[in-house]
What we know:
Layout: E1 13-17, H1 34-49, E2 52-56, H2 76-83, E3 87-90, H3 96-103, E4 110-113, H4 121-124, H5 127-134, E5 139-142, E6 167-169, H6 171-184, E7 191-195, H7 200-210, E8 216-219, H8 224-230, E9 234-235, H9 245-258, E10 261-263, E11 267-271, E12 280-284, E13 287-288, E14 293-297, H10 299-311, E15 314-318, H11 331-345, E16 349-352, H12 355-363, E17 372-373, H13 378-386, H14 390-396
Parallel strand pairs: 1-2, 1-5, 2-4, 3-4, 5-6, 7-8, 7-15, 8-10, 9-13, 15-16, 16-17
Antiparallel strand pairs: 11-12, 11-14
Residues 197-199, 202, 221-222, 239, 294-295, 319-320, 322-323, 325, 354, 356 line the site of adenosine monophosphate (AMP).
Amino acid sequence: MKTIDSINFSQKKALIRVDFNVPLNEEFEVTDNTRIKAAIPTLKKILKDGGSIVLMSHLGRPKDGPADKYSLKHIIKEASNLLGTEIKFADDCISEKSFQQSSALKPGEVLLLENLRFHKEEEKGNEVFAQKLSKHGNIYVNDAFGTAHRAHASTAVMAQFFEPQNKCFGYVMAGEISSIDKVLNKSEKPFTAIIGGAKVSDKIMIIEQLMNKADNIIIGGGMAFTFVKAMGGKIGKSLCEDDRLETAKQLLDKAKAKGIAMHIPVDAVIADDFSNDANTKEVDITQIPEGWMGLDIGSNSIKQFGEVIKKSKTILWNGPMGVFEMSNFEKGTKQVAYDIAEATKGAAYSLIGGGDSVAAINKYNLADQVSYVSTGGGALLEYIEQGTLPGIKAIEN
Ligand code: AMP
């Protein structure tokens, strides 16, 4: 893997695709700076070498060209503070003025380009636009794992305009790639994948891929009920994708044929309404009464899953075990998070990925007690499904 460590940036101008797509409040202040913070080591290494930097990113989903609320000017203050260096700003990413600004940069200086998505060519992966953008620097660095599954102009298409020795991954990308590689290709056994969340349909491909790698697959969250119904259980009005019952059955059969242990919850916390104030009780997951829905895994499932997790040497977690946003239905997700932290203390390697599992790990303050917390939700899932991503292929080719 070619990383920024293999290049001396002295007197070079690094054109870096970062992921500064951060949430802003109504006053346009950054409310979560995790993604900006993550990019800082890459920027510091390049500045320390004596290079200059042109930063490219998107922010939000502007539909019709420039819109003030999606301007990257709002994040300059936060990024400058975190970097400890002034960041200049170009108010359009391909204007003549922006090219004057980038060519005037001196070693140690940093320029941020305005939101790439103000030009529709970015998301279309337009080659002319990508080539134009590429003129801002002489070394291309991709450090935006969160968008590496998109074949956009700045995330993939642009790489072809740089010689192989002039393109590489930043530390965020390198960390993500080696973490997934460790889990998928160098896993110590037993390898347990914990998959939760709302929908089976979103996770079919990933479960199929994991069947080639994992020893245990734990299923939780809303998607478990499609499996339970497929096995003949009564699930009341729990979440269910009736058009996926056959798929669920096939996945169970396939796991059995391959000798993989599929762990489906045995009990559930059920509620008579989708509300934290609903009446609740704990029942056998195959016997949910009419009018009730399962919103968390039950205590026997928590115990069984915990035993599997704590014996594991490699763990991948994507998706919550229940509606953990509501305090009455967070127990399963919370305990899984704690069990993963305990297994990690006992020398397991644990990778947490996907928006909601990352939110859960943060909610329980366990981010520093697991091995790696991925910054990319969709990108991580697609990487597991496909074995690579457009943003990775573009640098490696
Ligand atoms: P996903 O985006 O597919 O990973 O799903 C995450 C969402 O699934 C979270 O917002 C959870 O609240 C929701 N979820 C988890 N378990 C259940 C359940 N049993 N019923 C309904 N929603 C659930």
